[in-house]
Amino acid sequence: MYDLRCKREGCDFNKNCLCTAKHITIGRQAECTSYSPSENYLKTEKSTIKQKAVRTKTIADCKVSGCLFNQEGVCKANGITIATLDQKNEPECLTVKPK
């Protein structure tokens, strides 16, 4: 995975909008099922400081059928962005693109 960005506040893996999880899973409805609520909300980073693109060793499983980047259950996108867009306040993959 080339670049893994997270705009989900309150996630233990979100460090200055960079996901630090070693393994994430994008569920069938494009939800990030790896979200881990932070015990100390203030310890998660809220800012969107511009960062250099970094290569992470994160494995990204994808269960979204019909996504261009889903290759045999693994995300092959150069990068993933996770944000919260829905009313339920669920983290969601914004990189999903139909084939």
Write a short abstract of this structure:
By secondary structure, this protein is an all-beta fold. It is built from no helices and nine strands.
Characterization of this structure:
The chain is mainly β and 99 residues long. The chain has one domain (3-93). It is built from no helices and nine strands. It has strands at 3-6, 14-15, 18-19, 23-26, 59-62, 70-71, 74-75, 79-84, 91-93. The strands form four sheets. It has a three-stranded mixed sheet, with no helix packed on it. Strands 2-3 form a two-stranded antiparallel ribbon. Strands 4-5 form a two-stranded parallel sheet. It is globular and about 40 Å long. It starts with a strand and ends in a 6-residue tail after the last strand.
What portion of residues belong to β-strands?
25-35%
Shape estimate = globular
The largest beta-sheet arranges its strands as 1-8-9
Tally of domains: 1
> What structural class do the secondary elements suggest?
mainly beta
Terminal residue distance: 20 Å
What characterizes the major β-sheet?
Answer: 3 strands, mixed
Mean pLDDT: 83
| Number of strand segments | 9
Radius of gyration: 13 Å
Helix content: under 10%
Encode the helix/strand succession as letters.
EEEEEEEEE
| Helix run count | 0
Low-confidence stretches: none
Descriptors:
99 residues, mainly beta, three-stranded mixed beta sheet, two-stranded antiparallel sheet, 29% strand, globular
Write the layout of secondary structure elements.
Layout: E1 3-6, E2 14-15, E3 18-19, E4 23-26, E5 59-62, E6 70-71, E7 74-75, E8 79-84, E9 91-93
Parallel strand pairs: 1-8, 4-5
Antiparallel strand pairs: 2-3, 6-7, 8-9
